[in-house]
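Margin note from the TA: students keep mixing up input and output lines. Inputs are the sequences; the output is the structure of the whole complex. Example:
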Amino acid sequence: MHKKQCGNGVEMKQYEIVIGLEVHVELATKTKIFCSCSTQFGGEPNTHTCPVCTGMPGTLPALNKKVVEYAVAVGLATNCEITRYSRFDRKNYFYPDNSQNYQISQLYLPICKNGGIEIETAEGKKTVGIHEIHMEEDAGKLVHDEKRNCSYVDYNRSGVPLIEIVSEPDMGSADEVIAYLEKLRLIICYLGASDCKLQEGSMRADINLSVREAGVKKLGTRTEMKNLNSFRAIRRAIEGEKERQIALLEEGKKVIQETRRWDDGKGISYPMRSKEDARDYRYFPEPDLAPLVIEEEWLENIRERQPELRDEKMERYAREYDLPEYDISILTSAKKLADIFEAATALCQKPKKVSNWLMVETMRLLREREMDAEELSFSPGHLAGLIELVDGKTISGTVAKEVFEKIFDEDIEPKTYIEEKGLKTVKDESAIKEAVRRVIEENPQPVADYKGGKTKAMGFLTGQAMKAMKGKADPSAINKILLELLS
Amino acid sequence: MKLTDLTAVELGRKIKKGEATAVEAVEAVLAEIKEKEESLHAYITIEAEKAVEKAKAVQKRIEKGELLHPLAGVPMAVKDNLCTEGIRTTCGSRMLEGFVPGYSAEAVRRLEAAGAVMLGKTNMDEFAMGSTTETSAFGATKNPRNTEYVPGGSSGGSCAAVAAKECFFALGSDTGGSIRQPSAYCGVTGFKPTYGTVSRYGLIAYGSSLEQIGPIGKDVRDCSVILETISGYDEKDSTSIKREDTDFSTVLTKDAKGLRIGIPRNYFSEGLDDEVGEAVLDGARFLKEQGAVLEEFDLGLTEYAIPAYYVIASAEASSNLGRFDGVKYGYRAMEYEGLHNMYKKSRSQGFGKEVKRRILLGSFVLSAGYYEAYYLKALKTKALIKREFDRAFERYDMILSPVAPATAPRLGESLKEPLKMYLSDVYTVSVNLAGLPGLSLPWGQDKKGLPIGVQLIGNAFGEKKLLQAAYALEQGLSICTKSSAEMGLR
């Protein structure tokens, strides 16, 4: 709820915002939706192309079955009805990135309808309805050459499969929008249907937003906001658009139905096109593709192959592993993380220890390396092995962290690695004693401090001895010897 | 007897026996072309050298016993809206004047794999829009029977080439009658198969949901063998159908006994030329003599076929032709300012009048606010027309009718009145709307000496019965008073 204050502090009207989302998700198929070209990102311009995806005369689309499978899987996971007799339609518009000057999409009979997912924010739980999910093809990309004052077209992305998930206008705050998108992202990642990266454009959200006075039933005039590449941009754009619309209404002006483009650098949006000059897409049923009939057997097959999704996984973890809720939420925040957790735990039977490595060191390294959890590539067995080595006191915790970093980066086998590098904990007491003696000699001041009653100095001295041992000693052994020699 | 007097199957047999070679066949056809092409203009592109080279290679493989197909070594022509790898494919349009595809249409690929030798690309109405082959950007084709008359269209080049022996057979495409009508005007046999029988991959689309590629030949047997070769499921065309019954040439016997043939009474009423009506009924009488059972009936909704057809075909065309924008291939205006001006100028200059007329019509019927009133209504009409045919085929094996209301018009007569030209498609378009097979067979001629065609319309997948009846009817050609034999076709 938004309260608008007048200059003199008298409370004016209360407004609420109504938000619906159109989310485009690039599907993780190996080949394009209507031809067998690779969907791989990058590549020299126009190398992942063929006569079909470049719209050459006489070519015809042939539907990639995997696209339908993914769309149906997402539909099932978001509680949608699956349309058993679905069709594709043509959306006609001229633009050079659109190789045929029409996009094959679904307007009249989309593959999924009437679903919804539950989201949770600080305000509590609520369900966001999903109006429909439809399949369509992506367009190519224009590359402008300012120097030569001309433009080039790259059709590598042309025909990459997309699904568009259209929500009901059920969200009332940026928090709810973020929660919805996070939930959607996780469901789709868990299904393996997409990697859903906002920054890279494999997940794109357009925001339809309107404001109305609190208590009023009728929806206000909405605008559509495009070009939102991060959760931060989405949050800022929602706040910005809310303020803009309320300001208009407060001034007695009207909100114009239009599409706006968010400029995250400047933190403001610009109108792109209004309803009046909205294009007439002249949609009609795609005559080159037969109606898509989803057989019961196939649907059952997809249903059976649905993986365990996050909500179910969280419940199971609480039941099976006796982990704190916080651990569970982090471990299941990416499918890859959960997979590693389960596999490593199965090997060493120490869920809490596996969890700690994943929550602390793994997360730290992901941040440092600017990586996504889905990009993790080390073997769970190597993590399990490391835990065994620490528990068996073969290596110290300090060494373990160093070894883990190697596992994280290069997936080394920990046992072989520590042997090759001679990282095993030194059990020889005389060697430790020698090192401790040297530390005492070299650090007269801390020694004096300790003897003067400053017990804190003990920590410093232990650290120094550990350093001298290159981490290859049991800290408790060092401590014991230090106490012995200082007493 | 000249080599070019043979049918495609007869020539194929002769080549296999070693009595003729593929190269001789190509040379014989090139001689006909040299003699007649200047006055006919059936071809847009002739690839004489390539054809001779191809014939040599094919001949070697025939001699080695690698090519056993009945059409191996037989020269053919291909309508210029079918893509041919390395050979320019213009669609009869300035828009694609220099377009050379990197792939061949599936139907062409199948024929070439069987050993047929392509001579060149035949003239057509621009983007297959027209009924006279006069809308071609490369000039009109003339009717070989009388060069003052049109050959019909849009596959006018293919039909004229077959009639003039400038090839042994040809491929055409039929969206609203474009194989059957010019076949009738030129006195050759043309077959539009059931929708989905032949892959449309590589056919530059006009009205995608209506059109099929089909054979144009000298007789029924040739057509059945060609159709057999090009039909069959293709994973590149999602609308192509898996059919097991494509051994079409196996049904050719003289017998028409017991075939139940319906004659739509309302097709023989106002608007039909007397001579044409007479000839078509004469053909019907012949089939009756052969043992067929004839019955007149009323085929409903025929008056709605033309409006429904022109709405649907134009709507699809307006979208299909969107890709010709001057960006990637085809014609681009020399001078323009900015993207939209380039689109506008390139399309205004690259497309001819008839094409622009249909793009405008199609864009209009798909526009917001008109979609339901026109396009959706046309789709509903299409479904109802299909139901009328279904009802007829409960009682009949096939329907016999005229192909066109009259014989070929004079050159230049039709384009002045496009609406009248559209109306001349009255007997052919409903077959496309219903997705049915339709065949046009020559039967006599009018006083002017212009050929008349009989149309046989079958139920979906009823090709075999249709060919059986057509074959029986063809046996009557020699006794038909004004037979095409007399006209010098054979």
